[in-house]
Design goal:
The protein starts with a strand and ends with a helix. The chain has two domains: about 5-120 and about 340-370, NAD(P)-binding Rossmann-like Domain (Rossmann fold), CATH 3.40.50.720; about 140-320, 3-Layer(aba) Sandwich (Rossmann fold). Helix content is about 35%, strand content about 15%. The chain has 13 helices and 17 strands. The longest helix is centred in the middle third of the chain and has 20 residues, at about 135-150. A hairpin with a 2-residue loop joins strand 14 and strand 15 (about 310). The structure holds nicotinamide-adenine-dinucleotide. Nicotinamide-adenine-dinucleotide binds near residues 126, 257 and 259.
Length: about 375
């Protein structure tokens, strides 16, 4: 027995990823599943239709045809209203749905009586690491952000000894040393820069140092529940700002990645700090999508403020769509192993803690409590 798995072409602006890549499609076909992919679903990420056909996945001409007999739809982002309306009742949708940003669509999914799992709601426990799309996509974003910073900077990053004299290595500052920040640090180190990093979670210090970077320390520890950061008090914030301001003024490239789940990104770099930045310095604000870590960031834009460049990139994982999709697809495959029983059928009792936590809607109900609350409050 196999499951009918369907993979649409993503339609959101700026989205270039695909939820399943041929390598994973091959494994699923081998396991006895019926895999169909909408034509050109992988074009933007470097996986043309023929690569899917070669591994035994069917390529279908339209989303209407794709959804008609779908059992499970695996996708990157939230479907549009039209796509939701085309889903057969009872279909299971799996994707990085970021429900708090798409409340209308969540309500429509419930009304359509489909079951939706949102991969960003998976608990960050060891057993779930293989399906952690937030980590895999943050890895991509951190790497790409550092490359953007290096590319925009008017300087070499490594130290060079040349016939034209010695070049001093550039200074990179990374604010927020979670998954994306650590990847930005590792990338900057490979490029030969001197790297400093700061995070409110003191536990990040060891990871930062192990990458050969310096960890900036405050006399506080703001590690909250589940390894995430808590919000700082006013006094803590003032001390933090003083230390950050000093580091900002000395950096050539700054990558900001600070985030607190479910809240606006913390403001770490004020306009006054930007005014004291080195001429030619570049700040890449990875938090642009959730409000920005820098006061002057404009999401989706690159702005010049005096001699400083501030980049607010959106859709960073899509800029490295080949590997972002590959990692995403591996995460999806790991999740499907929970969703599909040993008998090759979909499980109907969602008792596993990972399934319970990521279950967004089912049987006409919004099951993720914080999202249900947001919907009620509208
Ligand atoms: N399965 C697992 O066990 C698992 C998986 C992924 C992540 N984690 C842990 O969770 C941590 C954070 O994950 P993430 O990268 O998704 O986090 P995130 O994207 O929510 O936040 C990025 C970073 O910003 C930091 N931050 C928040 N406020 C800040 C401030 N005011 N100043 C400076 N930094 C600030 C956070 O501490 C975090 O490290 C990871 O480093 C890791 O230790 C565990």
């Amino acid at each position: 027995m196999g499951v009918r798995l369907r993979v649409p072409r993503e339609t959101a602006d700026g989205e270039r990823r695909v939820a399943l890549v041929p390598e994973i499609a091959r494994r699923l076909v081998k396991a006895g599943h019926d895999v169909a992919v909408e034509t050109r679903a992988g074009d933007a990420s470097g996986y043309p239709d023929r690569l899917f056909s070669e591994v035994g996945a069917r390529v279908v001409a339209s989303s209407g045809e794709l959804y008609r007999d779908a059992e499970v739809v695996v996708r990157v982002g939230m479907p549009t209203r039209a796509e939701i309306d085309a889903l057969p009742e009872g279909t299971v949708v799996v994707g990085l749905l970021t429900p708090h940003r798409f409340l209308d669509e969540v309500a429509a999914l419930a009304k359509r009586r489909v079951t939706a799992f949102s991969l960003d709601l998976i608990p960050r426990i060891t057993r779930a690491q293989g399906m952690d799309v937030l980590s895999s996509q943050a890895t991509v974003a951190g790497y790409k952000a550092m490359l953007i910073g290096a590319e925009r900077a008017p300087k070499f990053l490594p130290m060079l000894t040349t016939a034209a004299g010695t070049i001093r290595p550039a200074k990179v500052l990374v604010l927020g040393a979670g998954v994306a920040g650590l990847m930005a640090i590792a990338t900057a180190r490979r490029l030969g820069a001197i790297v400093e990093a700061y995070d409110v979670r003191r536990a990040a210090g060891e990871q930062v140092r192990s990458l050969g970077a310096k960890f900036l320390e405050l006399e506080i520890n703001a590690e909250g529940q589940g390894g995430y950061a808590r919000e700082l008090t006013a006094e803590e914030k003032a001390k933090e700002q003083e230390m950050v301001a000093r580091a900002v003024a000395e950096a050539d490239v700054i990558i900001t990645t600070a985030a607190i789940p479910g809240r606006r990104a913390p403001l770490l770099v004020s306009a006054a700090m930007v005014a004291r930045m080195r001429p030619g310095a570049v700040l890449v604000d990875l938090a642009a999508e959730s409000g920005g870590n820098c006061e002057l960031t404009r999401p989706g834009e690159t702005v010049r403020v005096g001699d400083v460049t501030i980049v607010g990139p959106l859709h960073l994982p899509s800029q490295l769509a080949y590997h972002a999709s590959q990692m995403f697809a591996r995460n999806v495959q790991a999740f499907l192993e929970l969703l599909i029983g040993k008998d090759g059928r979909l499980v109907t009792e969602y008792t596993d803690e990972i399934l319970t936590a990521s279950l967004l809607v089912t049987a006409g109900e919004v099951r993720h409590a914080p999202t249900a609350k947001l919907l009620e409050g509208r």
